[in-house]
Known about the structure:
It is a single chain. This protein is of the alpha/beta class. It folds into two domains: about 5-270 and about 415-445, 3-Layer(aba) Sandwich (Alkaline Phosphatase, subunit A); about 270-410, no CATH class. It has 13 helices and 21 strands. The chain has helices spanning about 15-25, 30-35, 50-60, 65, 95-100, 145-155, 170-190, 205-215, 230-250, 275-280, 335-350, 365-370, 440-445; strands spanning about 5-10, 40-45, 75, 85, 105-110, 125, 140, 195-200, 255-260, 265-270, 270-275, 310, 315-320, 360-365, 380-385, 390, 400, 410-415, 415-425, 430, 435. Strands 1, 2, 5, 6, 7, 8, 9, 19, 20 and 21 form a ten-stranded mixed β-sheet that branches. It has a four-stranded antiparallel β-sheet with strand order 12-13-15-14. It has a three-stranded mixed β-sheet with strand order 16-11-17. A hairpin with a 4-residue loop joins strand 12 and strand 13 (about 315-320). Helix 7 packs antiparallel against helix 8, helix 7 packs parallel to helix 9 (about 230-250) and helix 8 (about 205-215) runs antiparallel to helix 9. The longest helix has 25 residues, at about 170-190.
Amino acid sequence: MNSIRKVAVFGLDCAEPSLVFDRWRDDLPHLRGLMERGTWGQLTSCIPPITVPAWSCMTSSCDPGALGIYGFRNRADHSYDKLSIATSLAVRYPRLWNILTDHDRDSIIVGVPGTYPITRPVRGCLITSFLTPDINAEYTWPPALKKEIADLVGEYMLDVRDFRTDDKQWLLRQIYEMTDKRFTVANHLLESRPWDLFFMVEMGVDRIHHGFWSFMAVDHHRYAPGNPFENAIHDYYVHVDGLIGKALTRIDAETTAIWVVSDHGARTMIGGFCLNTWLMNEGYLHLKNPPKPGQKFDVKEVDWSRTTAWGDGGYYGRVFLNVRGREPQGVVSRDGYESVRDEIKRKLEALPDHQGRPMGNVAHRPGDLYKQSNGVPPDLIVIFGELAWRSVGTVGNESVYTFENDTGPDDANHAQQGMYILARPGGAAAGRRDASIYDVAPTILGMLGLPIPGHVRGRSLPP
């Protein structure tokens, strides 16, 4: 007989499994306690493993191709300059709280990326995520919840205003303030609202990784032993563990399945690969005028009559082909499309790193990853050096390798493997069992006795 009546999910964006399961396990008593009475393991993320689309992939069990969301920004059509931000409007498949609402079940949703704007009221309450413009926007459901939050914590923090900054002491204070306010609000809702599903996401883990990884990671080229922030990430993990522990006191462990999940992991960023500079060097991309050093790539500066492909920067690389009849000034014929794409793929995957060693790049065709590719997918999704390198979109660089981030100070890249811990009511230690990000939603639906949609990509994890 199913003893589960509720499911509580603590999402920690970018939480790194090696830190939780191995390096700092003894320092995280509440997470360790959940592990000791449940199942835990790596949670393989989607490709690409980035916050948007990963949380929507997790909560819908649909991949980026089905969602048509390949990153924060996506091509809105096949023109060169029209981009759209992936908001809740882009998510066409139901997520967990939508399904619960359809079955008259209550949810508390706090900070899950991809929930702004609120276009479909949830049964229960919802607070949107860091992609909300600011707290002047309608960021809560019901709308009256906004005043309740202000009375509780003052100015609620949707995100750290600028986590790519050199002012590390300020950044650390901001991360702690944001996290404490989010958990204060979450605890208040746990105590004051009915719920069958509680699902919160804390962004502070991601922000502290990007801001402080080089102070901790001995394999980072800027690491200096004994620096003043060497324990910043460790101490924050301990703090979050304590906050989760306090939240658990508000949850009935006899009837509630408890999850801790991350959408992806984190790893040391060696440097950046200047994708558009490389495309120019290889003769695929031509500009109207010679670029200045480190110039930001601008599609208005491209000579499209001579350009075969261009790229986009970020934690992974996107390559787009300039296809005749698809793009406004396309030059690649439909018949020649596959051979050009395969040629670029082959060259990218053969690239050495800055020391002449194999870089280990993988350039994915969307059709090899997804059963369908909705929206406007990249022609190639490029993972540089197993995510040890990010994609840099600037042009005019002396080298295709750079060790300064083009979007501001950033020490870490994402890792393909996130983490999960699952403690069921009355459960005994089941040990390690790795899973997929797509398995979370069907497992939760099964726990709550709700139907699992036929379109899901994942499977329900066994008891």
